[in-house]
Amino acid sequence: MNNVATATLIPLAQVEPAMIEELLDRAFGPDRHDRTAYKVREGTDWLPALSFAALDEDDMLVGTIQIWPVALTDADGRRHPLLMVGPVAVLPERQSEGFGHALMAGMAAALDPKAPLPQVLIGDPEYYGRFGFTAAPTGGWSMPGPFEQHRLLVCTANPAVLPSEGTLGPWIG
Ligand SMILES: CC(C)(COP(=O)(O)OP(=O)(O)OC[C@H]1O[C@@H](n2cnc3c(N)ncnc32)[C@H](O)[C@@H]1OP(=O)(O)O)[C@@H](O)C(=O)NCCC(=O)NCCS
After folding, report:
1. Which of 46, 96, 107, 119 to mutate to test the pocket of ligand 1 (most atoms within 8 A of CB)?
2. Per-residue pLDDT at 50
3. Which domain, by its residues, includes 149?
4. Pocket of ligand 1 contains residue 126 by CB under 6 Å
5. What is the pLDDT of residues 155-170, one digit of tens each?
6. Among 61, 62, 83, 95, which is best to mutate for testing ligand 1, by the most ligand atoms less than 8 A from CB?
7. pLDDT tens digits for 7-41?
């Protein structure tokens, strides 16, 4: 049952870092740092203007979304900037109440509509498809670790600007 109206979004920067880490451990498990997504964004910081926390009706922290600057480096060494979405995390006991939806909508609303960068994430297409994410452009992409290609998803108004082959990594320098 979706219950989006009860979600209040605040900038993630207003939340104590230890509380964010605790929530992520509960949503993904403590071995989450081994995931390939962490390697893609290694050495970067999440973007405060696009990252949010969801609070419930009692102002308790129930979910977070973080957005990171990453690059897709093509065969000629050119770097194409993208936004990496994730983790998107909702406390296990508060899932399927609409908090994930509210976090995705909040992030999308914060993007500059005149120049939105393509967004990339690793997640279930059955969930993220509803927000416009598809694995169609990523068939020739690689990452610094194991991943399932059908879970490497992109959302963009103009897929033609994306290289068909490239390697994802952090946007640094
Ligand atoms: C995935 C996640 C962020 C979704 O947030 P949420 O607040 O639970 O989801 P919402 O309330 O917005 O949406 C609920 C709907 O999505 C569906 N859904 C949730 N996770 C899903 C998944 N992994 N695959 C397919 N459908 C999913 C639910 O069945 C529900 O469907 P319904 O509306 O038909 O009943 C949350 O469940 C979560 O933190 N999961 C653990 C961490 C994770 O796997 N994150 C994704 C990778 S970045």
Report:
1. 96
2. 98
3. 4-170
4. yes
5. 999 999 999 999 999 9
6. 95
7. 999 999 999 999 999 999 999 999 999 999 999 99
The pTM of this model reads 0.95
How many domains does the structure of the chain reveal? 1
pLDDT digits (tens, 9 = 90+) for 106-122: 999 999 988 889 999 99
**Alpha-carbon distances, residue 119 vs 35, 38, 78, 144 (angstroms):** 19, 16, 18, 18
Instruction: Identify whether the C-beta of residue 11 lies closer than 8 Å to the C-beta of residue 48.
Output: yes
Quick one: which H or E segment has residue 80? strand 79-90
- Which token pair is 163? 């290289």
In ligand 1, which atom is closest to the CA atom of 98?
A: 11
pLDDT at 5: 54
Q: How confident is the model at residue 6 (pLDDT cuts 50, 70, 90)?
A: confident
- The CATH number linked to 75 is 3.40.630.30
Judge if the beta carbon of residue 98 lies within 6 A of ligand 1: yes
- Give the list of residues 6+ apart from residue 100 with CB closer than 8 angstroms, or none: 63, 88, 90, 127
- If one residue of 41, 85, 90 were mutated to test the ligand 1 pocket, choosing by the most ligand atoms within 8 A of its CB, it would be 90
